[in-house]
Amino acid sequence: MIEALSMVDAVFRMVHVYKPVFWAIENPTGKLVRYLGKANHYFNPNQYGDPYTKKTCLWGVFKITYRDWE
Fold it and tell me: Beta partners for 58?
């Protein structure tokens, strides 16, 4: 878990240094919520045309726009 959290820490360091207009961390629902808090957005890949279903979380600064994928 320490190794996984070090990768998350690296992302936050890059965000702090480069100050991007938008950024996101994606991870399936799991332990990361304990460290980052509630995600900004939740989705299942099948909502966007992928047959895969697994609740996935997004943390960051971004805008969700919806469009018709059919």
Answer: 26, 41
